[in-house]
Amino acid sequence: MTRLGRREFLGAAATLAAAGILYRLRPWDAPPARGELPRILDGKTCVVTGATSGIGAVTALELARRGATVVVAGRSAARCEARVEAIRRETGTRPVAVVADLASQQQVRRMAAEISSLCPRIDVLVNNAGTYLFDRALTPERLEKTFAVNYLSHFLLTNLLLDRLAASPSARVVSLSSEAHREGRIDFDNLQGERRYDRLEAYSRSKLAILLFTYELSRRLAGTGVTANAVHPGVVATNLGSENGPLRGWLRVRVRNLVDRSMVSPEEGARTSILLASASGLEGVTGRYFDRGQETRSSATSYDQALARRLWQMSEALAGIGASG
Ligand SMILES: NC(=O)c1ccc[n+]([C@@H]2O[C@H](COP(=O)([O-])OP(=O)(O)OC[C@H]3O[C@@H](n4cnc5c(N)ncnc54)[C@H](OP(=O)(O)O)[C@@H]3O)[C@@H](O)[C@H]2O)c1
Question: Is 114 close to ligand 1, i.e. is its CB under 6 Å away?
Answer without folding.
Answer: no
